Structure formats: structure tokens, C-alpha cells
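Consider this one:
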Amino acid sequence: MDNLMNNINKSSQLHKELSRNYHPDRFLDEEKKALAEELMKEINGNKTDYKKLLALKEKAGYNLTNRE
């Protein structure tokens, strides 16, 4: 039971972090804003799956920071 609660807490914390960092309103560039909108849909759709959120964090960092 403790492991389940730990996973839920970690998922919740990661979801909040990703939501803050990759919210579409934070981006002025239209291309990055569109990418952020797609990422937010995925982030919100997987907010209880810690492993998927970790994968999305990596994907988001790559997609939004490696674009000119």
C-alpha cells in the first residue's frame, strides 16, 4: 500500500511540474505553443502514470528546447 501511495504522490508532483513548465501560455513562438498544447493533452491524459510522465518530460524537454 505504501508503494502505491508513493507512486501516486510522485505522479502528482511530476504532473504539477510538467504542467507548470510546459503550459502553452508560457510560449510566445507559435510552433512551440502548438507543441506545448499537444504535450499538455498527453500530460493531462497520463497524469497518474509516472513512467509515461517521465517519458513525456524527456520528450518535452527535447522538443521545446531544441527548436530554433
